[in-house]
Amino acid sequence: MTVTDVNVVKSAIFERPDDANKGTLGSLLCVCGSYGMAGAAVMSAKGALRTGIGLAKCALPRSIYPIVAQTILESVYYPLSENADGRISKVNVPFLVSESCKSSATLVGCGLGVCDDTLKIVFSLIENSTTPLVLDADALNCVAKQPEILLRKKAPIIITPHPGEMSRLTGLATPLVNAERERVALDFAQKYGVVTVLKGAGTVIASPNGKVLVNPTGNSGMATGGSGDVLAGMTASILAQGASAFSSAAAAVYLHGLAGDIAAEKYGKISMLPTDLINCIPLAYKRCGF
Q1: Which residue, 118, 132, 184, 217, is the most exposed by fewest CB within 10 angstroms?
Q2: pLDDT score for 16
């Protein structure tokens, strides 16, 4: 077992040149949110922005656009047509695939919902996007219905399941996933060729080439709805800035946990929120020497 340290961040994050601009710092498409799940879109995009992405672009149902846009002023928005349940309609697939291919990376799944429309969106992005993807939350619940879709990818993929999602992806009972976290994550990574981030105490990062890391940062105050959305945004942000899939995952997990530890110092584990974690990302970077 190899435990991560600050060097995973230093190897993934580059010093910004004086002549940097938003174009050189990467663009990230976030396909997230649905009616009743605007917060997931907000936290993932805010996590991405605080982690340093040059340009965040949020593709979301038109019904939640006003809420999200009032909360995040720094993003570009694509308010999309939706189905009767307030989820992004599959009629948007051609646009989403095109925009994904134009972006440095794409995040899919936070608060997306699971239905025929979102299945079509997730599967189409996996099969057709030529730039890297991060799949989280409901994107993983879609993939769980047909995991073999991952073998049809055209670009690197990072998945970020919690143990329950990993159970659905593998068919293994959740207690077994938790009992053999490193083996389960590595087996999935190698079977499907995706970087696998199995979240939890001691998050496991497994590469298709057999490398496995275990993260030491983080605390129980992060066990709150929304923390995973923040991690997904952070992971996709580092990926879009140019790091490899494995390096992006390892760096994001370490930074995410460190930001959580700083938030716990400031607010206490009981009262800290995922939004506190987002606000502590700059302090986490400083502790890493940036």
Answers
A1: 217
A2: 85
Is-contact 213 250, C-beta < 8 A? yes
> Does 57 carry a binding-site annotation?
no
Q: Is 202 annotated as a binding residue?
A: yes
What would the pLDDT profile of 72-82 be if each residue is shown by its tens digit? 999 999 999 99
For 21-287, CATH number out of 3.90.228.20, 3.40.30.10, 3.40.1190.20, 3.40.1080.10 equals 3.40.1190.20
Domain boundaries, the chain: 21-287
Neighbour order of strands in the sheet with 105-108: 2-3, 212-214, 204-206, 195-198, 157-159, 133-135, 105-108, 27-31, 55-61, 76-80
Q: Is 47 annotated as a binding residue?
A: no
249 is in an annotated binding site: no
User: Residue 120: its pLDDT value, please?
Assistant: 99
Please list the ranges in the chain whose pLDDT falls under 50: none
pLDDT tens-digit readout, 25-40: 999 999 999 999 999 9
Q: Which residues pair with 198 in a beta bridge?
A: 204
Torsion angle of the four alpha carbons 220, 224, 31, 258, in this order, in degrees rounded to the nearest 10 = -30
Count CA atoms within 13 Å of residue 227 on its CB side.
24
pLDDT of residue 15: 84
Annotated ligand binding at 173? The verdict is: no
